[in-house]
Give the backbone structure.
Amino acid sequence: MKKAKQDWAGHVAAIKAQGISTIDYAQQHALARSTLYHWQKKLRRAGAETSKPDKSTAPTQASKFIALRMSEPQRLVRPTPTNCTLVLPSGMRLEMAALPAPKWLAELGRCAQGAY
């Protein structure tokens, strides 16, 4: 990866890790917003946004929070006996009446790893 692309990938990753707006990040680091938006779009297209930047290029402090997307609950019902238990590496335990859809499990895995 070229030096300029590495540098901008670090900035883009830092925005995501810090959970702040692109405008705020640009102001904090005296960067042109238009250039930052350009690189976000370019890296997103190249798929480089999800890769981990070189630590020397990422002026960030890693966040300990993970963004999760939750769907609306279907409806509230009385608890039923669980037939499926999922234990995540973090120790979180999910008990469900039935095995969830594979797509849902894949999304949960990505969220748990902070890659969503």
Q: What stands out?
A: Residues 66-116 form one domain.
